[in-house]
Specification:
Elements: E1 2-3, H1 5-9, E2 21-27, E3 34-35, E4 46-47, E5 58-60, E6 69-71, E7 74-75, E8 78-84, E9 91-97, E10 100-102, E11 108-115, E12 123-125, E13 127-128, E14 136-138, E15 144-146, E16 152-159, E17 170-176, E18 186-187, E19 192-197, H2 216-237
Parallel strand pairs: 1-4, 9-18, 10-19
Antiparallel strand pairs: 2-8, 3-7, 5-6, 9-11, 11-16, 12-15, 13-17, 14-16, 17-19
């Protein structure tokens, strides 16, 4: 017997929908009936119309389960068509807090990747890392791994102290990149940008040169000289 997609679509209570995946399950309700995916074998079956074999075979025991033997054939008595949906990949979002830092020691922004649902295995998240810049350091690496059964992983961007007057602001751009394994996650939300502001430190000018001062005796002498000059000028005027 050969089934194709159109024939299976005509089975009572089963309607095949475009783009929907289906599992064709061969099961044994009571007596054993040997079925194999082999045109030369007895009770063989084939696939057409876009269907293919996902797996076949069975385990068989002749001593009430004491021992089992793997067989290549599939014991079958009825054919069942069961629709199933592909698992929906989790969404991955990125947030960095805060988004502005001062170019002084101790200024840190924490960047967190959040999955909409946990996975039973580690989930590596690819990142587009910021360009290397002397204005900051970062612990962010690609991939950033979200541990199994968790929904978050984080890294940091730390400002480097800068006391150069008029130094420009520095930006660090970080984003989630598409997964290496298709459908491992989908990217949601915008990229993050952290700005490291110049701290505006004003370098004080050099110490001013003190104006020379006169000692007490020199000051008295200067006053005396100025007094004599003033007296002489007044005599001439008279």
């Amino acid at each position: 017997m050969t089934y194709d997609a159109a024939q299976l679509g005509g089975i009572a209570t089963t309607t095949l929908q475009a783009g929907q995946k289906y599992a064709l399950i061969l099961s044994n309700a009571s007596d054993f009936v040997g079925v194999t995916n082999d045109d030369n074998a007895q009770n063989a079956y084939t696939f057409g119309g876009g269907f293919g074999v996902a797996g076949e075979g069975h385990a068989e025991s002749s001593d009430n389960g004491a021992t089992w033997v793997n067989q290549t054939g599939t014991p079958a008595f009825r054919l069942t068509v069961v629709p199933f949906a592909d698992p929906v990949p989790p969404t991955a979002t990125l947030t960095c807090t805060p988004t502005e830092l001062l170019a002084v020691a101790g200024q840190v922004s924490t960047c967190t990747v959040t999955l909409s649902a946990p996975s039973t295995t580690d989930t590596p998240i690819n990142l587009t890392l910021p360009a290397v810049n002397p204005g900051f350091t970062t612990t962010c690496t690609s991939p950033l791994v979200v541990p199994a059964n968790a929904t978050q992983a984080a890294c940091t961007i730390t400002a480097v102290a800068n006391t150069t007057p008029g130094a420009p602001d520095v930006t660090a751009d970080l984003a989630i990149a598409p997964p290496t394994t298709p459908d491992a996650y989908t990217v949601e939300g915008p990229a993050a940008q952290i700005t490291i502001r110049s701290n505006g430190t004003v370098v004080p000018p050099a110490n001013p040169t003190p104006v020379p001062t006169l000692g007490a005796a020199a000051l008295v002498s200067l006053v005396s000289v100025m007094g004599l000059l003033g007296l002489r000028r007044s005599r001439k005027s008279a």
